[in-house]
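Dolichyl-diphosphooligosaccharide--protein glycosyltransferase subunit 2, Aegilops tauschii subsp. strangulata. Tokens?
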Amino acid sequence: MAWRLPPLAVLLLLVAAAVAPLSSAVRPVSDAHRSVAAELFAASPDDLETTYEAVRTFKMLGVQRDKGLDGKACKLAAHTLSSSSSPAKDLFQAVQIAGVLGCSVDAGVYDDVASRLKAVIKDTDSLLEFYYSVGGLLSLKEQGHSVVLSDADSTFHAIKALSQSDGRWRYDTNSAESSTFAAGIALEALAGVVSLSDAEVDPSMIGVVKNDIVKLFGTIKSYDDGTFYFDEKYVDGSEYKGPITTSASVVRGVTSFANVVSGKLNIPGEKILGLAKFFLGIGLPGSAKDCFNQIESLSLLENNRIFVPLILSLPSKVLSLTSKDQLKVEVTTVFGSAAPPLRVNLVQVLGSDSKIITTDSK
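Tokens:
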């Protein structure tokens, strides 16, 4: 893209599409992130959660995985899935690992896992148990297995019953405090219920949840530079999550819900843009957990249905009208990919004396 401009012009740019530009001070995901991810996950993890985060991060970044890690991860997942004592959380993570790596698991094992997860859903009032069970079933469905949640409406209502008036969620009926992190996993679970249902989920309830999301974004925090993020408060003695983990939970939940319902979510674009700026502003993460949350959140924001953030870079040089210099604007996604076709409008051009030279030029 190129435009001819008056000398010493200062540009204010507006992208005229369902996208938004970040300043050139913010840089997209790069090879440096890939190197850091490889270092942070270098030690072969022994637990399911870290194993999933490692293989998922490598897949999103396109990092070649060690074959030894893949084999160990599949063995761990298969053992967990075949064990009758594995709780819903372990089954959920094992199914996800198998999905990322394409592990070979007997269909009968998956049938048994699906039955066990459905049984958990019927008997629980815990948000986390709903999350793990619904998420596990959804992962099975995404891997090509026939999975239907026949009582989807009642499950949706049971999860929704834990919501609070400020858009946050409780972890169970006994929780006195609401949680922003819990809101994210609740929205992700509700999205899973919609995907697993064999009939349309009550449209009025979908509308209520959309309104809950608006309220949730009313609690978002910000910095003066346009960065937006979610933070967690102390909840019932639980471990403090921190803004990276909490923001990542909300991004997962909101993007998941937006992908399965019709219509738009009434979320201001600048807040989605600000969340992307927050995760890019982390730079190179210092822990494996932060790395996973950063990369997955940016991956989801790059492909969401709400508002797609783009990184816009301008050259830092003086342009001359007499020599017919052209302004070249580089636009990429948060992952550094080329931006989709778009139109850039010059909203206003100011000369060196701060006087307006032109407006609304394309």
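The beta strands are 2-4, 10-15, 19-22, 221-222, 228-229, 308-313, 326-328, 330-333, 344-350, 356-361.
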